Amino acid sequence: MNTRRNRQELAQFLRRCRERTSPADLGLPVRSRRRTPGLRREEVAFLAGLSPTWYAYLEQGRDIRASTEVISSLARVLRLTSDERAYLHQLATGSPAPQESPYGETEDKIVRAAVAAMGQRGLPVYAADVHGDLVAWNDAATTWYTDFGALPANRRNMLWWMLTAPEARERFVNWEEDTRDVVGRFRRAAAARAWDARFEELITAMRESSEEFAEWWSSHHVSKQRPRRREMWVDGELRAAQVAVLNLAESTRSVVLHLPVDEHEPTQGE
Predict the structure, then answer these.
(1) pTM of the predicted model, to two decimals?
(2) What is the pLDDT of residues 212-268, one digit of tens each?
(3) Burial class of residue 197 in the structure, from the number of CB atoms within 10 Å of its CB (0-12 exposed, 13-18 middle, 19+ buried)
(4) Fewest CB atoms within 10 A around its CB: which of 74, 87, 223, 231?
(5) Strand ranges inside the chain, DSSP E
(6) Same domain, 40 and 81
(7) How many CB atoms within 10 Å of residue 181?
(8) How far apart are CA 184 and CA 177, in angstroms?
(9) Taking a C-beta distance cutoff of 8 angstroms, is the pair 84, 17 a contact?
């Protein structure tokens, strides 16, 4: 869905990616001082095989339609990561980029481990909706994180808690890395539901309440959901787990599991 908000996000994202791309990396001669960093609009258009005027319209947020092939060409020129490429497709076409391998051996392994660990005591399990609003959690989740039941219903949100609660910064060993990852996934979810007023409410509130969120949001940091190691201080002890998400079919709810960590095997996302 190419809404006004997504068109504006697309324009800002393209400009930021263009400005960070070095002409030398693409084999372009740099013979004089440039007034702006990175590539010029005309250079992006030329390398992607587009009309300079048409590409300028994209960066102006105009209501124009871009094909999957055009967006893939822009992603190649701007040297986007796989996460950024999927995000660009989501903004421009309403659908993520086609995945070369939708389900691999790593995911199969995580699913098997998740099923085995579902009943294991002492490890957190919680469920959240697409906005990160918590809808269910076990006792271990309150021990590792916080008593979500004591929070106001409209602030019972994992990202909000991570950004604004002083205890979150104390509990997460790698608070910035873990929180940036959740922000990146939140951005992808928001792009997929541009019509969703709850996202608008949360984005506005977090921009006003968290300097880090405002900075990361403006930088267009984006990431996809993948299993990752999370380390936390729990009752004065360092605890580690591999966090994996099970998306329920035909539902906007996901179950977040904390799986035992194999200390001798690095996890995806480290």
Answers:
(1) 0.73
(2) 999 999 999 899 888 899 999 999 999 999 998 888 755 678 889 898 887 545 444
(3) exposed
(4) 231
(5) 125-128, 134-137, 228-234, 237-247, 254-259
(6) yes
(7) 20
(8) 11
(9) yes
Place of tokens 């997504």: 6
SS3 255: strand
Q: If you search the block for the tokens 């258009």, which residue do you land on?
A: 45
Indicate whether 100 belongs to any domain: no
> Residues 6 or more apart from 247 whose CB is under 8 A from it?
254
Instruction: Determine contact, residues 172/210, Cβ cutoff 8 Å.
Output: no
Torsion of CA 101, 75, 185, 19, to 10 degrees: 160
Whether 99 is in a domain gets the answer no
Strand partners, 157: 133
What is the domain extent for residue 37?
Answer: 4-93
Q: How many H helices and E strands in the chain?
A: 12, 5
- Give the Cα separation of 157 and 155 in Å (integer): 5
Pull the structure tokens for residue 147: 């008593």
Indicate the SS3 state at residue 111. Answer: helix
Please give the structure tokens belonging to residue 167: 């205890």
Q: How far apart are CA 134 and CA 154, in angstroms?
A: 10
